[in-house]
Amino acid sequence: MERSQEFIKKCLFTKNFDNPNKPIDENRLRDTLIVIPTGGGISQRLKQNKSRLSLSAANLVATDSKIKHSSYRDVNKNSKIAMKNYIQSSRKVCQRAKRIAYEQKLKDKEGLYKFLKEKEQDIWEQLPRYENYLSMYEKLWLGYIREVLGIEKDVKDSKKLNMNQSSALTKLSMAEYNGAMLRVVKSINKDIIGKQGIVIWDSQKSFIMITKGKLVDELKVIPKRGTVFNFEVPINESDALQYTILGDRFKYRSSDRAARKFKGRRCDDLLYYLQQ
Predict the structure, then answer these.
(1) Most CB atoms within 10 A, among 31, 238, 243, 256?
(2) Which residues are CB-contacts of 108 (< 8 A; sequence separation ≥ 6)?
(3) For the residues 245-257, what does the mean pLDDT come to?
(4) How confident is the model at residue 114 (pLDDT cuts 50, 70, 90)?
(5) Contact 93, 181 (CB under 8 A)
(6) What whole-number distance in Å separates Cα of residue 202 and Cα of residue 227?
(7) What DSSP assignment string belongs to 27-57?
(8) What does the pLDDT look like over 9-60, one tens digit per residue?
(9) Are 144 and 176 in contact (CB under 8 A)?
């Protein structure tokens, strides 16, 4: 408990108590704190307008969750192998495209794509494209997450949005993030800070995302460990709810999170987030 007490006293009590040791001396602390892996608030002025949502409750088809494919294990195993092969092949194709851009002295995506389409048709066809996954985010995930949070289609005044934030965070902790647009805001790996993309695979230990590039769009495997992600849920054309994901508390598959109850845990291992 000593490390937890030091963490809480240093980061919380110094801002709220004249004597930070008072709650500790009076034994008012518990051994564990509840740390939900998502947090958020309202963010004004979205950087770009969102397309009109096309998914609603009327479009959803009810399915029996108990029905499983006869060879579920084989399908799951094969899907992982296919995803791994796709990532590896995409990386090789992107490297070849960048090499051609260097050799031909091409400095923009439009010029490179035009050259590949004329001279290197096989490379041009195999390159991953961000716009191919954009509908997965705009037309599927946004509609899904708005219904999870109970946000109506037309909310003209965001200040009148009636939502239980505690309940919303719990729902987001168990939600599906395949198709979400995430941005890395903090990480122990400085090279990935600022990376933003659409999640095409939410695995147990990482988010696999398609990101925009200056020359080519690329697949990035972003580890959850030591990483903080941000994402937005638009309310209307100008306002959005902004949430944060603590990767260290999110190291579960989406299917496992759906039935998981997040319990009290020590939080001293999150100290490095505040020290950065």
Answers:
(1) 243
(2) 214, 215
(3) 78
(4) very high
(5) no
(6) 14
(7) T---S-EE--SEEEEEEES-SSPPPPP---G
(8) 666 555 556 676 776 676 665 555 445 566 665 444 444 344 433 333 343 3
(9) yes
Pairing of strands 239-246, 206-211: unpaired
Residues of the chain with CATH 2.30.30.210: 35-60+129-275
Going by the DSSP 8-state scheme, the letter that residue 189 receives in this structure is: S
What is 35-60+129-275's CATH topology? Answer: SH3 type barrels. (2.30.30)
Question: 243 near 39, Cβ under 8 Å?
Answer: yes
C-alpha–C-alpha distance, residues 94 and 120, integer Å:
13
Q: What is the mean pLDDT of the chain?
A: 76
Burial (0-12, 13-18, 19+ Cβ within 10 Å), 199:
buried
Provide the CB-side half-sphere exposure for 153 (13 A, CA): 8
83: Cα within 13 Å, side-chain hemisphere: 18
For 43, 229, 235, 261, the CA distances from 150, given in Å and listed in that order, are 18, 22, 11, 21
Helix ranges (H only) for 157-230 are: 165-173
Q: Which residues pair with 42 in a beta bridge?
A: 241
Which two tokens mark 155?
């909310």
Q: Residues in the chain, how many?
A: 276
Identify whether the C-beta of residue 256 lies closer than 8 Å to the C-beta of residue 173: no
Residue 136 per-residue DSSP state: I
**Model confidence over 128-140: pLDDT tens digits?**
999 999 999 999 9
The DSSP secondary-structure symbol of 228 reads E
DSSP state of 13: G
Instruction: State the Cα–Cα distance between residues 52 and 42, nearest whole angstrom.
Output: 20
Decide: 10 and 268 in contact? Cβ < 8 Å. Answer: no
Report the distance separating Cα 206 and Cα 224, nearest Å: 5
